[in-house]
Structures are given as C-alpha cells and as structure tokens.
Amino acid sequence: HLVLSEEGQILCIIFAKNHLDLPLSSNAILSWKFCHVVHKLLRDGHPNTLRDSRGHTASIRQMGTLWGNLHDRYGHIVALYAKLLCIKIDFHLKVSLIVPSITFEYIYVFDMTSEVLEYMEAALKLQETVFRQMESSSTSSTTPVGKCRLAPLVLVVQDCGPLYHFLVKLLFKLHSRIPLDALLGHRERFREQFNSLTQFFERVRGMEFFKSIIQIPDLPDEPPNFLRAASFADYVKPVVVQNETFPDFDETDTQLDFGEGNYQMVNTTWIGQTFSVLVGLQAEKETLLRTVKDQEAEIASLRQAAQLHQTMLQQERERHQREMTALHNQLQEKVRVLLQKLQDEQFSLLQCAVVEAEGMVLDAVAKVDDPLHVRCISTPDYLINRAELTLASIDKMQQSHVAYLRNMDDASGLLRSVTQFSHLISDTIVNGAGTAHSAPTDQADRLTDNCRDCATHCLQYLKELKLKATLPRADPTAVRFVVQRILNQGQDLRPRGADVQKEELADMVDKEMTATSTAIEDAVLRMDEILSQARRDSSGVKLEVNQSHFSSLLDIVESGRGAGSVKDFYAKNSCWTEGLISASKAVGWGATQMLESADKVVTDRGKYEDLIVCSHEIAASTAQLVAASKVKADRGNRKLQTLQQASRHVNDMAAVVVSSTKSGQMQIENKNSMDFSSMSLIKLKTEEMDSQVKVLELEKQLANERIRLGGLRKKHYEIEGISTDSPPETPSIDGW
C-alpha cells in the first residue's frame, strides 16, 4: 500500500507544482481548473488515487479558505469547489472502510445519512452559485468563459445521481427501524435537496453544452414517501448516461462504488489525455505569467497615477481645510462680536431700569422729609402688605440675578424683577413715612429712620447692579433686613380694637347714631340763636352761615344709618363697624365743636381759625362715613347715592363756612390796619427786625404744632381702633 499508483504520482506532481510553480494563490481561473482536474482524478482515476490523496486535503482546504476570503467571483466558486472536494475525499475514505453488507448498525447508518446530505448540499451549493454568477454577468454557455465554468458541473451531475440513489436507500432503511419523529429533520433536508436537484437537472438538460457530453438522469415528479414501506418497490434508480469519452461505472445494492473504477485496470487512454491536459496547463501557465507581468506593469503605472492623484487630492483637501479653518475663525469672531454686542445691549437695558429704579427710590425718600407730606397718613396694615410684597420681590430679584449671571444674553427676567422691586420698595418707604405720621413719637422716629436706611441700602444695592465690576457680588441682604424691621414695626403699630364684644357692636351703632342725631339737632337750634344774635349786633362781623346748608351737613348721619344692617351683619363685619362708629362720633363731636366756635366768634372770644378747623373736621368725618358705607353697599344702591350727594353738599357748605370766615377775618384786619407814616427810619428798621424775629418764631411754632398735630391724630386713631386699610382722605377746602 506504500507504492503509489501512476495517477497518484501524477496527483503528487500536481500538488508539488501547486507549492512550487503553479500560481494557484494569485490566479482564480487556474485554481478553478486545478480543482476540475483533481475532481476528474478522484472520479475516473486509479483506485489508489483516493487513498493517496488523503494527505493533500489540508492543502485543498487551505486554497479554498484563501479564495473565500478574497471576495472574488471566481474565488467564491473555487472556495465552494475546494470544500466539495474535501467532503468527497473524506466521505469516500470513510465509506471504503465499511463492510460490504447491509447488516451494520443503524446508528451508523443514521450518521452516514447526515454525511450524504451534507455531501449533496455542497454539490448543489456549487452549481447554484455557478449559475447565479453566469446570470448576473449575462455569460452565455456557448462562450469559452461559460464553458470554463460549466465543465466541472458535468462531474457534479455524475456525483449527484449515485448520491441521490444511495441517500434514498439509506432513508428507507432508517424509516424501517427508527421512529418517524427522529427522522423529521432528515426528511425535510431531503425534500429541499430533492427540489434543488430537480431544478438543477432540468436546467442542464436544456443546455447544449451538456447535451453533447452527458445524458441527464430523470427524477420522479414527487420525492419518495418514506413513511410507506411499499413505496420502495416503486422506486426507480436514476441512471447517468454519458458518451464514450466519459466511461460509466457499475454499482450494486450492497457495495458503494461512488466514482471509483473497477475503488483493476488502468485506462491508458485517459492517462494520455491527462498528460495532454498538463502540457496545456503548462503552456497556459506561461501565458498567464506573461499576462501577470504585463498586468503588474500596468498596476505599477496605475499605482503611480493613483499616488499622484492622491497627492493632488491631499493638497486640495489641505487647502479646503485651511479655507474652512479661516471661515470658521471668522464666523467665531463674528459670533463673539455679536454676542458681546447683545450682552452690552442687555446690560444697557438693565442700567436704564436701575437708573429708573434709583429715581423712584430717591423720590420716595424725599417725601419722608417733605413738610407737604406730613398730612399724608397710612395705616400699619397697608404698610405690612407693602413690606411683605417687597420681601417677596427681593427673593425674585435674587433668583433673576443668578439666572442673568448664568446667561447674560437675556436680561428680561432681571428687568421685570427690578421694575417690580423698585415700585414695591418705594411704596414701602412712602407708606412707612405715612404710617409714622400717625404713630407715637418714639416709634415714629424709629420707623422714619428705618425708611431712610431702607432707601440708603437700596440705592447701594442698585448701584452695584448698575456696574459690571460689582454686578456679580450685588447682594440685597441689607435691604431685606431693613424691610423686615419695617414689617415688624408695622405689626407693632397695628391698632387694638375697643374692648367690646362683637354682639354689642350693633347696639353701639344705634346708640352712637342716636347720640349724634341728638347732638346735631341741638346744634342746629343753638346755631339759629347764635346767627340771630350776630345779625342784631350791627357793630360785630356778620357770620354768613346758611342754616339749611348746615342741616344738610348734619343729615349725613341719618343717610348713613339707613345703609346699616342687622346685628349679625355688624358682628360679622366688626372692623368695618368700628370705623362706622368712629366716624359717627367724629361727626357729632365736630358739630358740637363748631357750635362752640361759632358762639365764641360771635362774642369776640373766639378765633375764626376755630371755625375753619371745625368745618374741616366735619367734612373729613363725613367722607369717612361715605367711605365706610361705600365698602359694603352695592354700586347702584339709592341710599348710597343719596349719601354721596349729601357728602358733596356738606363739603361745599364747609367751603362756604371757610370762605365766610376768611371774609369776616379780613374785615376785622382791615379795621385794625397799622399806620407807619409817623415812624422814623430807625423805628421802621427796628420794627422790621422785630417782625422778622416774630415770623421765624411763628414758623418754628407752626412746624412744632404740625408735628404735635400728627402725634395727636396717630394717638386718636390708635385709641379709636380704626383698622381700615388707610385713613379717609381729607377733602380739600379752599387750600386746607
């Protein structure tokens, strides 16, 4: 068995050539033809050829792997062909070891069937790929290229016929002894291969190339039914018939002769043909080598051109990159400039808002020390409301400040916060000063000082917001602290209501209204007597007061009483009721004071200013009654309209009283006019200086009296327990 057959020696020579001279690794067509020769040797060569080829399967498999990785069209079918040859060699070597009998174990038959299915699958895969490549490239079977690809398929047809027959026998034998469920996979694979093999035979049967070489075997229309044992009797073995050039081989049911000659005589004619093929291959090799040299020269030229083109592309790419970099830098610079411009504009808007806020704060703090603002009074409750809203706006300012520092492209949030903060902080300062006007002296001084401190810290905070250098560290903590102190003082100044039970409020309203009405009636009667006496005294100054007008002034209480309600209404609105009682008391007291002042004026014991003040107080008390009634009355209430008309009439009549009083005062002053004609220059200068001193003393006394008046009013509101949002505004009476 160590002596090689002649065909084996030829095969060894071919394999040696593969390693030494044949460019199988660089020429796919030559590799394809090499596989064809090996296949021909395995089928029709000496029986020992198969045995001698055992040591060369690794080389064939390596060649197939090489071409399979190159993704070449011929390389793809070379890889499939090499795989088929390796499977063929391994399979026939294994089959040659089987005892020529059908009594071997069925587990071995099961494995053998799997290997035959794999063998058939490799052959069918090769032919499917060859035909698919020819169709995709529109290659005709009559051209040399087409014949080169189709020639190995003749051997594939010769292999597939016996394989199909052997596979059918194995499956029938397995189905006779093995459970059907265990063979389901085999049956499905066989059905797929049967359909593919039928299509393969039908395709080559219609091609002229195969008609002149081999007769294609016929297959049944349907695959055998392995589930019925009787179907084996109807099975017809497919026979491959070929011409004289390709001798047929014999086969029995018990021995497996898959392409091995009689696995006895050497076909000398075939050997001669093989040598002729080798000579042709050698000539073709030389031609291919020359072609390879020409192609290598062409490739070198193309590579040089490609390198030149690549260099030009690289230069162009670098130029474009430089241009893109320059454009990108320009764009970045423009974006930076625009962004800086946007930020500057946003900061300018912020500065404008801060400047406006500074103006509002300065205006508010100026009112604290303005003498004209002394008569402006606010309530602790309203001050508390302003201070609480201001604290909330400070929180919003801090949030907007942080957001602006994170994104200085948008200052809209901080602008809104600055505007709201400036209005609220100004309201807090103004109303703090107004509340101080009605507070006790020590508390008023502290509240006024806190209002000034609030303005100072607020202006400092706004100054930090206005400058870029100090913007990041601007902190309203000091402002918050002072506003909190103002809030606490407002809470301390809240009026404490009278110690009266709520259920007694209704009785108090009726009692005060009755007492006020009685006082008014008495005042009207007494006023008539005073006026009559004034008219009889021709030497005195006439007091022009109309009785009907004065009666209208005092009838306001009756109208206000008509707008009242039942006890539960008074109890439910206790704060409002207390204000109504206070206003009623003020009207009654004002009527009495006006009566006394008029009596003193008539008897030359009083001052005209007393009448003016009493008229002012009655008008203010009347306005308070109207305001209290307006809070609880409907807009279209007729009694409210009557009340408002009466209030306006009272205000007009009070103005008449003031005008008449001033007129009478001027008459007296005209009678007592001074005569300076007899004074010398020195005397006039002395009197002028004394008069200036007296004016200064009177101005100082006037300022002190105004402060004292404010303190008295604060204490008055505190004792009366007025808890409305703000005290009633004093009507304007001829400049008072």
TrEMBL record:
Name the UniProt key words of this record, in alphabetical order. Actin-binding, Coiled coil, Cytoplasm
Domain I/LWEQ intervals: 471-720
Q: Which GO terms describe its biological process?
A: actin filament organization; clathrin coat assembly; endocytosis
Q: Which GO terms describe its cellular component?
A: clathrin-coated vesicle; cortical actin cytoskeleton
Keyword Magnesium recorded: no
- Work out whether the entry's keyword set contains Transmembrane: no
Molecular functions (GO terms): actin filament binding; clathrin adaptor activity; clathrin light chain binding; phosphatidylinositol-3,4-bisphosphate binding; phosphatidylinositol-3,5-bisphosphate binding
| Gene3D superfamilies per record | I/LWEQ domain (1.20.1410.10)
Any single Pfam family the record assigns to this protein: ANTH
Domain named ENTH is located at 1-99
Checking SMART domains in the record gives:
ILWEQ (SM00307)
Spell out the family assignment given in the record's similarity comment: Belongs to the SLA2 family.
Name under which the protein is recorded: Huntingtin interacting protein 1 related
* Organism for this UniProt entry: Cyprinus carpio
